[in-house]
Amino acid sequence: MNRKNVAIILLLVLVALLVIWLDVPAAKPSRCGIERQAVKTLADKDAASIMKGPIQATTIHDLIAHAAPSKQELMDASATRFPAEKMKVEVTAMVTGYKKESDLDFHIVLADPSTGQTMIAEIPSGSCVPIEYASEFTALQKQFASDFGKPIARFKQVTPEKVKITGIVFFDFLHGQTGVAPNGVELHPVLGWSK
């Protein structure tokens, strides 16, 4: 083995160690999320009116009490909302952990301060929402990283921190997500929070 080959191998090992140390994903996603993407990124026909509508106070416990759509109903509603998904809500919750999803959304686990029940809230990437919302979600992801720490690909459990968080109700498919509510209800997208 000549010096050039040794140098190349050493360089590759150093790059691999740097990628692991920085927790850089192997590749950026080729596209944003797929399942019900129009609804969860405000690209559907009801988004503008929901964004202009009032904020309703509720609890995680009450959101989890909503009847879950069936898998078939979710598949049939790729770009349309269920009645509960037309609500912009604010809940008091404990942020218990988070991670950055492969589609670049910030996945946040919220717990009800009274019952301990959990649900997911997500902040989509500004690159995956309609252009009129791109700067808002880019700023929200930056603010979340500043307030709670920068999410990485591995889930990070944190000391619970109480927040009032606002978002739009969304039902997701159940596929073993960390912190998922039994009915798949989420706040997706998150629109803001206060400590």
Q: What is the count of distinct domains? A: 1
Helix content: 25-40%
Strand line-up of the largest beta sheet: 2-3-4-6-5
Q: What's the level 1 CATH class?
A: Mainly Beta
Mean pLDDT: 89
Distance N to C terminus:
59 Å
**Which stretches are poorly predicted, pLDDT < 50 over at least 5 residues?**
15-30
Rg of Cα set: 19 Å
So what's the overall shape?
globular
Global structural class: alpha/beta
Oligomer: single chain
- Would you count the extended β strands for me? 6
Number of helices: 6
CATH architecture identity: Beta Barrel
Helix and strand pattern: HHHEHHEEEHEE
Beta-strand content bin: 25-35%
At the fourth level of CATH, the homologous superfamily is Nucleic acid-binding proteins
What is the CATH T-level topology? OB fold (Dihydrolipoamide Acetyltransferase, E2P)
Major pleated sheet: 5 strands, mixed, barrel
List the helices and strands and how they pair.
Blueprint: H1 3-22, H2 37-40, H3 47-52, E1 55-58, H4 60-64, H5 71-76, E2 88-100, E3 106-111, E4 118-123, H6 131-148, E5 156-171, E6 185-194
Parallel strand pairs: 1-2, 4-6
Antiparallel strand pairs: 2-3, 2-5, 3-4, 5-6
Task: Describe this entry's structure for a reader.
The protein is an alpha/beta fold and 195 residues long. The protein is 30% helix and 28% strand. It is globular, with a radius of gyration of 19 Å.
